């Protein structure tokens, strides 16, 4: 399973770049940037996670998890009831600062907080299903969060950036093409395992995820 050191060494091997020319720290930073870029392409199964929100009577706003990136769905615990997403402008345009009391049926996001469209009349628990931010590699023995067969994709990303730095744009473009092709192969691989193509960012998420794609939805009795 290629770790950060193996990814970095592979990039050095193919570019023959020495530490005097570009430090390990700089290549490590490039690898982390590659992880961010990869995570931004699709809503990947390896970024799916869940958390709970403990709703308190009379409180509409709740902090999102620190690793929150994109929301999939918000459901009432112990049921299959899915709260409806709305926009801040629509919610505030309808209610202003005077939101009615009752059981929340909708929500909107603002900054790093989630707001319910009702002032809760009682305590309850909501299940938050979301895509988390990717974890960066802090140590040489750390490995990326996706399947090991695709770890060296990050070397292609690093190689393309190294060649750009050396102003060899032909080699940089060739490495960039390998990177893009590898991402498409990775998406197809996850598609075959989950039956659903990882969503391109910007598409509206749905509850159509399969059991393999989101096992915790199955565990919760939603699928």
What does this protein structure show overall?
- Helix content is 37%, strand content 22%.
- It has 223 residues and is α+β, with helices and mostly antiparallel strands.
- The protein folds into two domains: 4-45 and 135-200, no CATH class; 47-132, no CATH class.
- Strands 3-8-7-5 form a four-stranded mixed sheet, with no helix packed on it. It has a three-stranded antiparallel sheet with strand order 2-10-4, with no helix packed on it. Strands 1-11 form a two-stranded antiparallel sheet.
- A hairpin with a 2-residue loop joins strand 7 and strand 8 (113-116).
- Residues 204-223 have low confidence and may be disordered.
Structure summarized in a few sentences:
By secondary structure, the chain is an alpha+beta fold. It is 37% helix and 22% strand.
Decide which structural class fits the backbone. Answer: alpha+beta
Count of distinct structural domains? 2
Radius of gyration: 21 Å
**Low-confidence runs:** 204-223
Looking at this protein, list some descriptive labels.
223 residues; four-stranded mixed beta sheet; elongated; 2 domains; alpha+beta; 11 strands; disordered C terminus; SU10_adaptor
List the helices and strands and how they pair.
Blueprint: H1 4-15, H2 24-41, E1 42-43, E2 48-55, E3 61-63, E4 68-76, E5 84-85, H3 88-95, E6 101-102, E7 106-110, E8 113-116, E9 119-120, E10 124-132, H4 153-165, H5 169-194, E11 199-200, H6 215-219
Parallel strand pairs: 5-7, 6-9
Antiparallel strand pairs: 1-11, 2-10, 3-8, 4-10, 7-8
Helix pairs in contact: 1-4, 2-4, 4-5
């Amino acid at each position: 399973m290629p770790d950060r050191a193996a990814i970095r060494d592979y990039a050095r091997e193919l570019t023959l770049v020495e530490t005097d020319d570009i430090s390990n720290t700089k290549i490590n930073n490039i690898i982390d940037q590659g992880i961010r870029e990869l995570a931004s392409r699709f809503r990947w199964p390896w970024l799916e996670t869940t958390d709970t929100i403990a709703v308190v009577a009379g409180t509409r706003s709740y902090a999102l998890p620190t690793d929150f990136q994109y929301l999939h769905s918000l459901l009432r615990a112990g049921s299959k009831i899915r709260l409806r997403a709305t926009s801040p402008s629509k919610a505030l345009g309808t209610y202003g600062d005077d939101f009615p009391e009752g059981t929340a049926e909708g929500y909107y996001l603002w900054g790093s907080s989630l707001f319910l469209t009702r002032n809760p009349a009682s305590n309850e628990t909501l299940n938050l299903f979301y895509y988390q931010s990717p974890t960066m590699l802090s140590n040489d023995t750390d490995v990326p969060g996706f399947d090991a067969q695709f770890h060296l994709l990050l070397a292609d990303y690093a190689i393309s950036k190294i060649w750009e730095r050396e102003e060899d744009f032909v080699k940089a473009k060739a490495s960039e093409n390998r990177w893009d092709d590898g991402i498409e192969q990775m998406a197809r691989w996850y598609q075959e395992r989950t039956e659903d193509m990882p969503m391109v960012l910007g598409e509206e998420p749905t509850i159509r995820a399969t059991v393999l794609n989101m096992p915790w939805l199955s565990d919760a009795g939603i699928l």
